Structures are given as structure tokens and as C-alpha cells.
Amino acid sequence: MKGKLQGMSRNKLKSALVPYGFITPATLTIVLLVLYPIMYGIYISFFDTNLVNKWNFVGFKYYIQALTDSSFLHSLWKTLVFTVTVVGGHFVLGFIFASFLNMDIKMRTLLRGILILPWLFPDVVIAYLYKWILNTQGGILNELLMHFNIVSEPVGWLTTSATAFPCVILVSIWKGYPLVMVQILAGIQTISTDMYEAAKIDGANAWQRFCYITVPALKPILTTILILDTVWVFKQFTMIWLMTSGGPGSSTMVSAIEIYKNAFSYFKYGFASAQSVYILVICYLIGVVFRRLLRDD
Fold this sequence. Notes:
Layout: H1 2-44, E1 47-49, E2 55-57, H2 61-68, H3 70-101, H4 108-115, H5 117-120, H6 123-133, H7 140-147, H8 161-188, H9 193-201, H10 206-234, H11 238-243, H12 255-264, H13 269-293
Antiparallel strand pairs: 1-2
Helix pairs in contact: 1-13, 2-13, 3-8, 3-10, 3-12, 8-10, 10-13, 12-13
Transmembrane segments: 20-46, 80-101, 113-134, 154-174, 210-234, 269-290
Protein name: ABC transmembrane type-1 domain-containing protein
Subcellular location: Cell membrane
């Protein structure tokens, strides 16, 4: 009897430990690849260090310095403008193409595959592709414009302050809209057609059906995509770095590039880490604000 009770106890213990066994690999991965780098970055921000043999504690010096650093504040403003315009572009194109693909048209499957292609290409490929297209000398865009006499001489799309930032924004919009498009399309296809037919009978026009049926039904999806897309765009680095490296001047100097240069060009690791902590806090607050504003009532 005693052995039977012990066996039952062992079985209960195993059953209780099974869920933890399943989540352990994922937990360790998150701790090693996410939590540890974040905590180590926060630790570095309190030191004037070369990461080898120099560790001078400076407290909150770099946090205070970042708030008064004109370059960092400028990069935050550029990042804000970049994020708002790119995310807005993603949602405009996403809604347009999702609504188009939801129609009963020929070759709809082929069009879906074509429209999702920008998201499938790596950032490196897209950046170098458009860097070649927008090249001042020999770029296909300048060649076409001069061929049709739209411009008389090559335009420095990525080497002129007035055009570099808009070009980077347009390329980023083109690269990222498929994610929003696919999510919105999936959400639209879950909405019952009976709701639209009832709204038509009641005299609702297309805009009213969009505002009072489509958008409320897509609210949970839109909230998730808006948070993810905003955070991803806010910390965009690869595309801008490969196309302009933050130039010309500081016209495309977003916060990610500003932090990268401080850390790996000027070797100000502590200062760059403090700036990174501010970006981490901002990204967290973005999620909190969006969840509060767009929560499902």
C-alpha cells in the first residue's frame, strides 16, 4: 500500500513537472538571447568603459547627457517622423491591396504572390537594389527621367538632403506593407458577408460599411499589427544604414544609427547603452499606449 502511494505521488510529480519541461527550452532561449543582452546593456550604461579593462562608474551621467545631446534629440525626431510616415504608409497600402485582393478577380492567387514579394526579400537585398536604382550616375531612375526629358541632369536621390529621407521612407513603405496587407486580408475574410448585405439593405454606403463593419471587426488584428509594426519601424537600422549610413549630413540619422555610431565608431559604449535604454523605454510605452487606446471595448 505504501509503495502504491509512493508511485502515485511520483506520477503526480511528473505530471506537474511536464509543463515546465515544455517551456524550459523557450524560456532559456529568451533569457540568453533577449533578457541577458538587455540587462547587460543597462549595466554598461552606468560605466565609462571600453568593455575590456576600463570600468569607471559614472552613475546616471550618460542618461542626463543623452537628454541634452542635440544629435540624439535630432535623431529621435527623425525616428518619430520616419515611424509615423512609414507605419501610415503600411496601413494605407495594406488596406488598399487587401480590399483589392478580397474581390472576386482573375489570377487573384498570382497577384497575392506578387504583392507579398517585398516582405520576402531580405533588407540587404532591397537596400542595395534601390541604392542601384537611385544611383546618381547610371541609376535606372535617372536614366529614365533623362530619357523622357523630365530632368536635364542626374538627381542625387540619396546624396541630397532634400531627397534622401523621402526616398528612404518610400523604400521602407514598399518593403513593409505586405505584412499589414496579409493580416488585414485574413481578418476581412473572417467577416460574415451577411453583415455587409444587411448594411446595404439599410442604406449604408461603402464608406459607412468600412467604418462601422470592417474596422470594428478588424480592431484586435489592427491593434496587434500596429504595435508590432511601430516598434519594428522605430528601431529600423539595416535599410537606412545600407542606403545612406545616416547621411548626407544628418538628414537620415535615425536613433538606431546614432546609437550604432556612438558605440562602434566613437567607442562611447556607456553613452550608446544609455541611449539604447531610452529607446527600449519608448518602444515599451508605444505598446502600452496603443493597447490602452485601441483596447477591445
